[in-house]
């Protein structure tokens, strides 16, 4: 007998019929002899509706009251799912964040979990009950206020609950059936991975693969909690297991997946003085505007004149904030022209196995070159190589890389 | 400076615009220098929507989970109203039942208030905040579960909060502008009463005048909390003050209002043995079915044969339950025929002043007789005289009584 935490997102509980379907899935797992805790999101559309009401009244809402309103979406779902379970003969009880002991800090609407005081949950499990908990919410330590973990915090709740309860596994049910080698809409041959490591999943998530929230994967990695991503609609299917590198038998696989991201823009600063401290000045100014900088490239002075060019990428919707930060540097003549290119994309190969394989980068560059795709910027991490290219080549690049690394083969 | 509890029902907070209007009303009272606590219902329609979801999933829902779901309606409103207040510069904070210390028993969906631990509310008031509390809900003493007070429990919450906080007054804002001498739809000359006593209000409420919930009036009476009924839409208007008899200057006014009720049916049992104990047998059997009996009339044996007739009224929708209870008595020949008349109505005159005035009943019967209305049953209390008549005469009777007692005059 295992203790399993199951998580269902808003689409999976988006109607009465779907809630009944989820109850059936939960009852199957329970009837196999497991202890079960279920974390659920608000019914699809409900959170948006509540956020809409809030912003109609207060465009910049007090976050405590925002949370008070928005947290009700999950409270509705937990009650309904507990009832649906009871209807099919499964003893069940629902707990809101404050009832399940989900203690957070006071950063309303993006609160971080501090502790789980799970006495009530444990007691209910001991009574043989399925415990249904509200995703996305907790209670602040100091003031006993309702706090939400921010949009999409339900995955994180589920993993945190699994960690807090020392569960054997956390199963995230979603509308995709696992993690793929790349976006199947671009590469029909994309293959579902039976297993990926936390780090690979993080790199994929940060590149826009929306299977799991980044934060939930970080949490799972930190506490080494195995997470299974599986489909609400294909129950026989094992999905993809996200787990530690040691458990993934990684030496055999070099590259696990190809990711891409069209949401970044490239900013190039020309003729900046190549002297210590200027990069610090530039990126401090940008950081003060809360802009996330990703790839950064600085060449050595190409003209031998003590001046250089500096390029970096930022999210497209933060370009204007970055430019605000750079304007003052320009007027004080610390930098020359500012060039913005929004028609770029970032294509990445991801794989824990590349650490022990030589020639991976060369193979990537060759595959892109064979298609005539120019590489504007390159950045690497231990398990990822990213190239910034012209946006129009994105799909071509993804297909070429998928083929070059033979990801369609098991 | 006074401490005032204000209550707004679902219609008054039924949209974003209406919530903003309520915020304006609250800010006026706050800016006059008062401490203010506001109790609100769910937005009109929301509770029905939630109840609908619950019953789609579980027609006979576990009441704990029912409460978990249904209580969210008020939680949304309190957050939105707090935000609307903040938008117009009023410092405000919202509290759910469990946050405001509204402790109830465990009778889910019809819980009774046991205690109010109002430390948080007091602390917030001391900080100069307007406190917005959720009507209709609390937290169970034993299990820390969400409990609702039953449909319409918001009036009771407001009065209980007022009592718990030792407020100076509880203002119930509603879509009518006070308590009238009778239903203005029947008697256009009906006059709004500036003041009524708790007992009169109770008699009126029990007769179907839906201005205040019976339970909230009982609560107010028990703790002598003055309640003002006033309109959300006519702010200059003082409405009607419901208060203790001593404060109403009642000796001057004999009759305060005329009430009517078309929801009762008359049941007559013929040829029952006029011996001790049979009435007890009959009404015990009916009580076991949870049927509320109202007027009861037993004549002395009209035929001098030791047998009598017994008539009583029950709510129309409980007639079938009453008949079930009576069937067994009939088959054991303890009673004769059972006659049901659903086409009856009860018309009442209500007034604390009738205690010290003679001739009130005679005046009532004369007024009805003058219109050719036959009286089927009569019952009296200290401050009320009710007559059961044929339903078709209801409006005629109400108008005749309103005129006879000159209620249109101040």
TrEMBL record, chains A, B:
Pathway: Amino-acid biosynthesis; L-methionine biosynthesis via de novo pathway; L-homoserine from L-aspartate: step 1/3; Amino-acid biosynthesis; L-threonine biosynthesis; L-threonine from L-aspartate: step 1/5; Amino-acid biosynthesis; L-lysine biosynthesis via DAP pathway; (S)-tetrahydrodipicolinate from L-aspartate: step 1/4. Keywords: Amino-acid biosynthesis, ATP-binding, Kinase, Lysine biosynthesis, Nucleotide-binding, Transferase. Substrate binds at residues 47, 74. The keyword ATP-binding applies. GO terms for biological process: homoserine biosynthetic process; lysine biosynthetic process via diaminopimelate; threonine biosynthetic process. GO terms for molecular function: aspartate kinase activity; ATP binding. Its EC number is 2.7.2.4. One of its GO terms (cellular component) is cytosol. Residues 267-352 form the ACT domain. ATP binds at residues 7-10, 174-175, 180, 185, 210-211. Transmembrane segments: none annotated. PROSITE patterns: ACT, ASPARTOKINASE. It catalyses: L-aspartate + ATP = 4-phospho-L-aspartate + ADP. It comes from the Bacteria. CDD domains: AAK_AKii-LysC-BS, ACT_AK-LysC-DapG-like_2, ACT_AKii-LysC-BS-like_1. Belongs to the aspartokinase family. This is Aspartokinase. It comes from Desulfurispirillum indicum (strain ATCC BAA-1389 / DSM 22839 / S5). The lineage of its organism: Bacteria, Pseudomonadati, Chrysiogenota, Chrysiogenia, Chrysiogenales.
């Amino acid at each position: 007998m295992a203790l399993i935490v199951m998580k269902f997102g808003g689409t999976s509980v988006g109607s009465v019929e779907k809630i009944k379907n989820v109850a059936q899935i939960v009852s199957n797992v329970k009837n196999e002899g497991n202890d079960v805790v279920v974390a659920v999101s608000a019914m699809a559309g409900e959170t948006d509706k509540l956020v809409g009401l809030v912003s109609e009244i207060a465009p910049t809402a007090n976050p405590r009251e925002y949370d008070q309103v928005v947290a009700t979406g999950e409270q509705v779902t937990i009650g309904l799912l507990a009832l649906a379970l009871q209807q099919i003969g499964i003893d069940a009880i629902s707990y809101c964040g404050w009832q399940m002991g989900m203690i957070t800090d006071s950063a309303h609407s993006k609160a971080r979990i501090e502790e789980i005081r799970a006495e009530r949950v444990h007691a209910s499990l001991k009574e043989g009950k399925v415990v249904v908990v509200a995703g996305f919410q907790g209670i602040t330590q100091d003031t006993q206020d309702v706090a939400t973990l921010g949009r999409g915090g339900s995955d994180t709740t589920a993993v945190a609950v699994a960690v807090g309860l020392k569960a054997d596994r956390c199963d995230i049910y979603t509308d995709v059936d696992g993690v793929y080698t790349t976006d199947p809409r671009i590469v029909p041959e994309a293959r579902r991975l039976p297993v990926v490591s936390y780090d690979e999943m993080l790199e994929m998530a940060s590149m826009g693969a929306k299977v799991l929230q980044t934060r939930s994967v970080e949490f799972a990695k930190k506490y080494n909690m195995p997470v299974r991503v599986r489909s609400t609609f294909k129950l026989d299917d094992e999905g993809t297991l996200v787990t530690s590198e040691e458990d993934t038998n990684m030496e055999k696989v070099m590259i696990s997946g190809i990711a891409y991201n069209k949401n970044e823009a490239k900013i190039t600063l020309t003729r900046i003085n190549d002297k210590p401290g200027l990069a610090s000045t530039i990126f401090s100014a940008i950081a003060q505007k809360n802009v996330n900088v990703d790839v950064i490239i600085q060449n050595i002075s190409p003209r031998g004149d003590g001046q250089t060019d500096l390029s970096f990428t930022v999210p497209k919707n933060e370009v204007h904030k970055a430019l605000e930060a750079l304007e003052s540097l320009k007027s004080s003549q610390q930098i020359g022209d500012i060039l913005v290119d929004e028609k770029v994309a970032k294509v990445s190969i991801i794989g824990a196995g590349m650490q022990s394989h030589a020639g991976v980068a060369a193979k990537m560059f060759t595959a892109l070159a064979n298609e005539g795709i120019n590489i504007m910027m390159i950045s690497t991490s231990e398990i990822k190589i990213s190239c910034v290219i012209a946006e129009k080549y994105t799909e071509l690049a993804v297909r070429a890389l998928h083929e070059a690394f033979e990801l369609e083969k098991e």
